[in-house]
Amino acid sequence: MAAITGQQAADLREPAGWRRTKNRIATIAMWVAFVLVIVPLGFVLYTVIAKGASVISWSFLTSPIPPSVLPASVGGMGPAVLGTIEITALAAVLAVPLGVLGAIYLNEYGGKGWLAQFIGFMADVMTGVPSIIMGLFIFAIWVLHFGFSGLAGAFALGCLMLPIVIRSTQEMLRLVPASLREGSYALGASKSRVTLTVVLPAAIGGIVSGVLLAVARAAGETAPLLFTILTVTEANPNVFSGANTSLPSQIFVNASSPYPGAQARGWGSALTLIAIAFILMIAARLVTARFARYQR
Amino acid sequence: MSAVTQADQAAPGSVPAGGLIGHRGLADRSFQWLALAAGLLVLVILVLIAVSTTQQAAPWFSAEGWGIFGTVWDPAANKFGATPFIYGTAITGAIALIMSVPVSVAIALLLTEVVPFRRARPIVYVIDLLAVVPSVVWGLWGILVFAPWIQHIYAHIGSAVDGIPVLGSLFGPPTSGASFFTAGIILAFMITPIVTSLSREVIATVPTVDREGAYALGATRWEMIRGVVWPHSQGGVVGAVLLGLGRAIGETIAAALVIGSSPSITSHLFATGYNMPAVIANQFGEATGVFKAGLFGLGVLLFAFTIIVNVIARWAVERSARRMRGA
After folding, report:
1. ipTM of the complex
2. Residue B205: exposed, middle, or buried by beta-carbon count in 10 A (0-12, 13-18, 19+)?
3. Of A92, A199, B124, B310, which has the fewest CB atoms closer than 10 Å, so is most exposed?
């Protein structure tokens, strides 16, 4: 920044003093805004790492959840780690193929037609629906009839992921040059064949990276799981039936607990959760760097 | 059916619906229908959300009538008025916006106008990191670290302004670490990434020619921002802010942990309160009958609010983007 101001000082068209001062104040205000954001972010990450690192270990990630009164040295969060992996993976299995298909409709078939435009608009609106509403919705149409299960949680998370996957995939399909499609048509390929064997492979890097980011977001969600998995403390390897648990739900429970041991386990779970989100985010960047052929 | 074929012809780089060789295989057609079904799923889910939650909330609507907007929420007395939660949602949303919007827009301007493109990357990563921290982690930090710390500051401010007419009733005692204001601050952190990234997108569409024109007339960067960037991107930034508002009013878990959980309508911003998503999250497990229907009803209201806010916001953003492309 100093170099730039130095350059301006030598400039013959240099503005009058008070105008330059105003300009400088505005620039400084922008940097101050940035600092205002990184300080709390740094503080949060520091606290989570400092408090979580002392709790986390292999046995923390695999041991059963003890009663809240017990100190942090006892037990761990094994069932919650298992539950988060089960439920998030199942949600991805449900939402990703549907989202990619939906995006194919929007970009390859719907185009500028009113229906595709409307669906695209509503997908954007759906990304803004509060996550707790997804929980209420799945409770009303599924849990009331079939009971709490990991599957119900996966439905709720899937509803959250669907519009994100649709929009990010559509963005990537849009970048595939029309000439690729036209070349394949010229060879006599049908539209579905062109889409599946030419367009999708060309965009796969960007699609995978978008999906990973959607999974990262879903893995940290608590609200949709509150009314769908019930948050128990026992491990439940069967994702299709019976109450389950997850890391975010356990953090929610432990955050309002008065016992230091439970709070420490909460910090450990928070660090685990942030680590999972980080790994997914870095994986997304790597995939983009390695496989994306067409970038924004 | 007609919608499909009609839209088909408009698709970019597409071939006529019949294909170039005159007929389309069954597989080809069924794939198209499958894709359409997946696309329609979005609309189906949105309609189902509205129908199923309204159905569950029906007992509340019929039991209370206009009483749903009553000011008392007391399950023990069988009184279920939603106003304390609507009030709390509005207050925390307003606090979050007031704190987050100037900062977000300033960062968006920093990224588009001040920092060179290549060096903006790391800053974007940092802002994205904010979005990666899960809601519940903000809540955990908020209640165990932030609230106890800021409680002292609230107490100082509270005793300082006590007795002063307007300030006293806004920031005076009673004060509590978990309060409307704490929830507003945490929500502000959480909506900053989305407001920043959308404002940045909108500001980036301002034509470079216009910027250069302003500089050529001798404008400073700040004058250029005020004269060129702001008029061009105003509408879009309003849309971005509304999307931030949509996030803030729907954000559940962080608010549930730091808002203090007591239904109250008070001008004291440092006092404990409640908002709509938080009360659903906290009380749903123990609720039955009209109580449960009432919580579903709060969900319906929340869903309606966020849909309205999001539709207006998306419309504003898209309109501004379209105008920019036309310009």
Report:
1. 0.89
2. middle
3. B124
